[in-house]
Amino acid sequence: MDTVIIDGLSFALPLFIIAIGGIYSERSGITNLALEGLLGVGAFFGALVVALTAGNFAADSQVPFYLAMIFSVLGGALYAMLHGLLCIKFKANQVISGVVINILAMALTSFLTSQINAAVLGKPSNKFQLGVSSRFTVPVLSDIPVLGAVFTDVYPFEVVIILVTVLAWYVLYRTRYGMRLRACGENPHAVDAAGADVAKIRFSAVMISGALSGLGGICFAYSISANFSPNIYVGFGYLSIAALIFGNWRIMPTLGACLLFGFARSGGYKIAQILALPSTFSDLIMTLPYVLTLLLLVFFSKSNRAPRALGEIYDKGKR
Amino acid sequence: MSKRGEKTVSMKDRFLVRLLGNERWQAITIPVFAILLSLIAAAIVILLVGKNPLTAFQSLMQGSGLWPKASYAAKKSMLTDFMSFLDLMTPMLFAALAVAVAFKAGLFNIGVSGQMLCAGFAATAAVGYLEIPGVVAKPLVVLIGIVVGALVGGLIGFLKYRFNINEVVSSIMLNYIAQYVISFLIYTNYVDPVSRQSRYVLASARLTLADTEIGGLKMNIPLGFILALIAVAAVKFLMDKTRLGYELKTVGANSKAARYAGINVKKSIVASMMISGCLAGLAGVTYYLGYYASIGPRTLASTGFDAIAVSLLGNSNPVGILFSSFLITAITKGSTYMSSTVGVPQEIASVVTGLILLFSACGAYIQYMVKRSKDRMTEAQAEQHNGKEVDG
């Protein structure tokens, strides 16, 4: 039971923070299919900094990990500006822009990773080694039966994600900026009439989505793969999009969806282990989160409603 | 920036209007302009890696059989390269058409890859290993591809119509489910112990006539390509000339207005997803039983995702898609040869593709800029004219 909770959380939380990024962008009215690319480019920048500074820190130092986080956030936000530019300034179709951003992200990061490895670090390789982040256990709390697992073998990034989540929730639902952002996704003309700059708010929302995706990306790189390589593009971004639509574009229900993915995934592995199923069956078990989601969607999709102005190019003159 | 009211016409205005000002040709001139811009950008990237962009582009075309190579192996020529290129282009063409049909109806089919896999696997399992003559096997493969694709696509449409499940979410979920379930089935029943892929399908079931000797040349003949050309015409006819196509486009443009006009929106959703699925299924059989003859477990073909961009580049227009899939496939196919002869890293090809798509996504903006330049020019002309009248 413990491992189900531990592994479930460490998968669900990075997914969740990426989905929150998606919520920011989509609630402001910008469709964001680019999450996959944003998380990859974010993680690329983080991993690049780690690779370039390798050797400057003690072997067990946690400094590279935090450096990676900071640069992933910056890198994700920077790359997201491209999506913002395309969607807001260049009036591109947002769905298409998102897909293009993803294709370009995969191409650029795999190209740059092997080029930098060969030219700067002097070894032909298509990945940056990162290692796995250290974990910690909270002393007293972890002794609570069942729930104690939540406090056992915690990755530091899980704490960071929870802190960022609280902040993101507060900003979106309790500040003037957050209210305007949400209004941009429902009725941008009203926001304009109230004297705020729709383009600016949307642009900032897209940048936030890039920053949060970058954070999620580097967390995956530091927990699941222990390196940065093009293999990071396995669809976590698309999965977060599914989670945020399932969560009806709201933060707390989206957390539920992410936890569902996480626990169904780790629970499935556990079941396979208990039943001692041959490894071929692991493929069937991998479908569990997705089958479960589809079934739940059948019951919970009736009230699902996207932000009204989602995907529309804002045109001041149009009423 | 010029002040408001002041009508200055810059060199840029004149240039843009002369080059792209003709609205009738903009559907062609703007994408071509975008492609040229991206090729310039790509040339700069190649220069930065220290290679000659011209030789790189040349070898790209040589790899796709669009430019003669210096020498060929026995029984090979530019034609054999070109045939192999068409073989790879076939699934891309089908997949991009699949995306376009859904897109026209306002739906986003991100599940083309999953539908391809389902159709490809169903045909492989049902017909791929049967010892029956090709004249029976091949049509059967095509038929299974169409039916399975339509069923999976239709399911996504049905889930949206009946339960209001967003098609993006359900297709992503179905992509994963298809990928893992089929991987399980391959490993348990159809695996080749050496390659760890599904066993090669028999030549009779393959939609590509592999290593066929014609006129002293050994080539792969993609039968599916003819089918793909028919599909281009059929989709064009459907969209432009039929009532169903008109309804789909209306639903895509404004589903509320469509409902008031008496169009059955829900039926249109399912219909467009079924047609889209059909085309994706055809992409699947021409991919898994055409260009390749086996299925790799646990992977989705990137074709289904690239097709979204190819469809955009072709402006979701069947004829446009014919050209855009030609271009993108030429880059993909030629890149292997380019990296082996010129030494330009193969990843550059994907960067070039990405750049082309990036610039073409800005098509609407280029159009907007041209229009603004044109307005400035006509205003300036009118002013000049007025000025003369006052003088006289």
Polypeptide structure, described:
Chain A is mainly α and 319 residues long. Chain A has one domain: ABC transporter involved in vitamin B12 uptake, BtuC (Orthogonal Bundle). Chain A is 67% helix and 1% strand. The longest helix of chain A is centred in the middle third of the chain and has 28 residues. With 392 residues, chain B is mainly alpha-helical. Chain B has two domains: 86 residues, no CATH class; 255 residues, ABC transporter involved in vitamin B12 uptake, BtuC, CATH 1.10.3470. Chain B has 15 helices and two strands. In chain B, strands 1-2 form a two-stranded antiparallel sheet. In chain B, helix 5 packs parallel to helix 7, helix 12 packs across helix 13 and helix 12 crosses helix 14. The longest helix of chain B is centred in the middle third of the chain and has 30 residues. Chain B is globular, with a radius of gyration of 24 Å. The two termini of chain B are 32 Å apart. The N terminus of chain B is likely disordered. At the A-B interface, helix 4, helix 9, helix 11 and helix 12 of A face helix 7, helix 12, helix 14 and helix 15 of B.
List the keywords.
heterodimer; A: 319 residues; mainly alpha; ABC transporter involved in vitamin B12 uptake, BtuC; two-stranded antiparallel sheet; 2 strands; 67% helix; 1% strand; globular; B: 392 residues; 15 helices; disordered N terminus
CATH architecture name of the largest domain in chain B = Orthogonal Bundle
Gap between N and C termini of chain A, in Å?
56 Å
Tell me the domain tally of chain B. 2
Overall CATH architecture of chain A: Orthogonal Bundle
CATH topology grouping of the largest domain in chain B:
ABC transporter involved in vitamin B12 uptake, BtuC
Number of strands of chain B: 2
Helix content of chain A: 55-70%
* Average pLDDT over all residues of chain B: 89
Low-confidence blocks of residues of chain B: 1-6
Low-confidence stretches of chain A are: none
Report the portion of residues of chain A in β strands.
under 5%
Shape of chain A: globular
CATH H-level homologous superfamily name of the largest domain in chain B: ABC transporter involved in vitamin B12 uptake, BtuC
